[in-house]
Amino acid sequence: MASNISPAAFDKEQIFGMAEKEMEYRVELFNKMTQTCFKKCVDNRYKESELNMGENSCIDRCVSKYWHVTNLVGQLLGSGRSPM
Amino acid sequence: MDKSMLADLDSLPEADKQRMTVMIDQLQIRDSLRMYNSLVERCFSDCVDTFKHKSLQKQEETCVRRCAEKFLKHSMRVGMRFAELNQGAATQD
Fold first, then answer.
1. DSSP assigned state of B1
2. Number of domains making up chain B
3. A53 at interface of B, judged by CB pairs closer than 8 A
4. CATH code for the domain of A71
5. Residues lower than pLDDT 70 in chain A
6. Domain CATH code at residue B20
7. How many CB atoms lie within 10 A of CB B81?
8. Is residue A11 within 8 angstroms of chain B, CB to CB?
9. CB nearest A23 (choices: B5, B34, B65)
C-alpha cells in the first residue's frame, strides 16, 4: 500500500490523520468537561429549567479548573515522570 | 465545533477542503448522537425512579424537560468559557 503513494501524498495523509485526531481530541475534551461540570454544578432536582446564579458561577470556575488540570496532567505526563 | 476550524479551510485546495468538510461533518454527527444518548441517560436516571406505570408521569416529564433544557444552557455556557480559554483570555477567580 505504501509503495503506491508518493512521498507528498503520504505527508498529506499524515497531516489529515493528525488533523482528524486533533479534532476528535478537542471534541472529547469538551464533552468530558461538559459532563463533569454538569454533574458537579447543577442541582439534579431540576426545580426550574434556568441555570441559577450559583450554578452559573460554579460552571465558570469548574471549566477553568478542569482546563488547568488538563494542562497540569499533560505537563506531568509529557515530562516523562511516571503516574506513580 | 468552533468556527475557527471552518475558517482555516479557505486556504486549502478544493479537494482537500471538501475532504476536511466531510471529516468535520461526520465528527459533528457523531458528537450530536453521543450527546443525545448521554443526555437521555442522565435525565432518565435523575428523573425516573418508580415503575408503577409504563408511561411517563406528569412529574417525570416535567423533570426531564427541565433537565434537558438546563443541560443545553449549561453546554452553551461551557462552550463560551472553553472558547475563551482556547484564546488565552485571562479569567478572574
1. -
2. 1
3. no
4. 1.10.287.810
5. 1-5, 80-84
6. 1.10.287.810
7. 21
8. no
9. B5
